[in-house]
Amino acid sequence: MKITLPAALGVPLMIAAALALSTGPAAAATGDLAINGTTQTNPSGCYALDGTASIVDNLTDEPAEIHAGPDCTGEVLEVIRAGDDSRVTEAQSLYIP
């Protein structure tokens, strides 16, 4: 049986493509997220904020979005970069991937 070069290269390329498609993003940020002194380790998802004033310390490797509405809805008011902190006012929720 004679195998041609394109056929020999096709199988490894198909395997590589399948592996690339099956790899998804990380499930949670790595590190600590503190909201008003309560710390979440490796946080992920939506967190409620006070609505009047909250102190957020983002010691993760992901940015945190501050939303005007509850359940991470409404306008994004601020993005707290990884390693930064902020005093957040008039926001109702925080999202971190």
Could you explain the architecture of this structure?
The chain is α+β, with helices and mostly antiparallel strands. The protein is 19% helix and 40% strand. It contains 1 helix and 8 strands; from the N terminus they run αββββββββ. It has one helix at residues 5-22, and strands spanning 31-35, 38-41, 45-48, 53-60, 64-67, 76-80, 85-89, 93-96. A 4-stranded antiparallel β-sheet has the order 2-1-4-7, with no helix packed on it. It has a 4-stranded antiparallel β-sheet with strand order 3-8-5-6, with no helix packed on it. Mean pLDDT is 84; it is low at 16-24.
Summary tags:
97 residues; alpha+beta; 4-stranded antiparallel β-sheet; 1 helix; 8 strands; 19% helix
Summarize the structure.
The protein contains 1 helix and 8 strands; from the N terminus they run αββββββββ. The chain is 19% helix and 40% strand.
Blueprint of the fold:
Layout: H1 5-22, E1 31-35, E2 38-41, E3 45-48, E4 53-60, E5 64-67, E6 76-80, E7 85-89, E8 93-96
Antiparallel strand pairs: 1-2, 1-4, 3-8, 4-7, 5-6, 5-8
Count of helical stretches: 1
Instruction: Give the CA-CA distance, first to last residue.
Output: 51 Å
Structural class: alpha+beta
Mean pLDDT: 84
Proportion of residues in β-strands: 35-45%
- Helix share, percent: 10-25%
Taking the sheet with the most strands, its summary is: 4 strands, antiparallel
Number of separate strands: 8
